Amino acid sequence: xxxxxxxxxxxxxxxxxxxxxxxxxxxxxxxxxxxxxxxxxxxxxxxxxxxxxxxxxxxxxxxxxxxxxxxxxxxxxxxxxxxxxxxxxxxxxxxxxxxxxxxxxxxxxxxxxxxxxxxxxxxxxxxxxxxxxxxxxxxxxxxxxxxxxxxxxxxxxxxxxxxxxx
Length: 166
Fold this sequence. Notes:
It is a single chain. Helices cover 50% and strands 0% of the residues. It is globular and about 40 Å long. The protein has helices at 16-21, 31-35, 41-52, 57-76, 86-97, 99-109, 128-138, 145-150. The longest helix has 20 residues, at 57-76. By secondary structure, the chain is mostly helical.
């Protein structure tokens, strides 16, 4: 009798910190502003969140990590309708507002094309946030259950019908 043992396949979770820091060589605009502190791109975005929106580093990192997951997934899978709740959206806005970093993110993960952020005024209550967390898991991310459940039914009102928007 012959027994064959398949090698176990290691499931590796995609690390948003690594993925965000990977854009560093692609930051082409205002690079002095971005790099004058000597921080990594990740630490810069966390510091900006702490400066403007979030009170503690742990939460800032969680918010940023989940925002990066969402943004990269929306860039890599434009055919899938994704959306975030209010908490994770704070991190999305942080990265979008830091345009040199956002342009680099688009360069690396969206084939160099700018990914628009085109929100509606009214939030949707259709479960998109929870479906987005499920989708993130399916593409190798580990979304923070607490952050996604927080706004589970209330999705940020981004327009999925505008070409290349999130």
